[in-house]
Amino acid sequence: MNVLLVDDSRLARTELRHLLQAFPDVTVVGEARHAAEARTRLQELRPDLLLLDIHMPGETGFELLASLEAAPHVIFTTAYDEYALRAFEVNALDYLLKPVQETRLAAALEKARAKLLAPALAETAAVPVSPVPDEPAPTLLTEHDQVFVKDGERCWFVRLSDIRLFEINGSYTRIYFEQHRPLIPRTLQHLEQRLDPKVFFRANRQQIINLKWIESIEPWFSNTLKIRLRGGPEVEVSRQQSVRFRELMSL
């Protein structure tokens, strides 16, 4: 996978080069300091992926993309979190906040690999058993990752470690963090596939809790458990999951 780095900060480009050395299948084919230089490099190098800053002298990263007839896949790298919604509106694969963490970079690169491999897999499939999915397989997120949450006109960019509870609400899932309770169009099954099981625990059919937000645990009816989370609420753990919880948390 050939990558072009576009950032006006030499230090930021150097740091990205260093992080990318951990991925043998990734080659940094060039760098650009601003949009005009990036356009030239894009024509010369034809990279598979852009690691693109937003704030640069002259034109922004968004303006660069808008000026291109065809663009490679894009992962934004920026020190500002307020552009997350716009980034996903222009179909960016991911949105990484500086300083970029290697775990987040690895997850973003996995999305790029999936996108790049999908056309080749579709062409070589002799007799497809089922339609090729539009989205790659979910990537496991760590508690340090930040996720984009939109509920109506309100948007947040929230760290998973700050989310204490996921709870089914009709066909949506309610997220509990700080004083906020937004709804997202995701099932608990989908979230369970993406969340780190060492941190997030399926307490029952309706709720997933963040283990690091547990304030107290007490025995409950029929050998079950009741857990109070810091900041609320109380969660009743099902009988089967109470057994799993005791096994998980015991020496």
Overview of the structural elements:
By secondary structure, the chain is an alpha/beta fold. The chain folds into 2 domains: 2-124, Response regulator (Rossmann fold, 3-Layer(aba) Sandwich); 146-249, OB fold (Dihydrolipoamide Acetyltransferase, E2P), CATH 2.40.50.1020. The protein has 7 helices and 15 strands. It has helices spanning 10-20, 35-45, 61-67, 84-89, 102-124, 188-194, 239-249, and strands spanning 2-6, 27-32, 49-52, 73-78, 94-97, 146-151, 154-159, 163-169, 172-177, 183-184, 200-202, 207-210, 214-219, 225-229, 234-237. The chain has a 5-stranded parallel β-sheet with strand order 2-1-3-4-5, sandwiched between helices. A hairpin with a 2-residue loop joins strand 8 and strand 9 (172-177). The chain is elongated and about 70 Å long. 25% of the residues are buried. The model has no long low-confidence stretch (mean pLDDT 87).
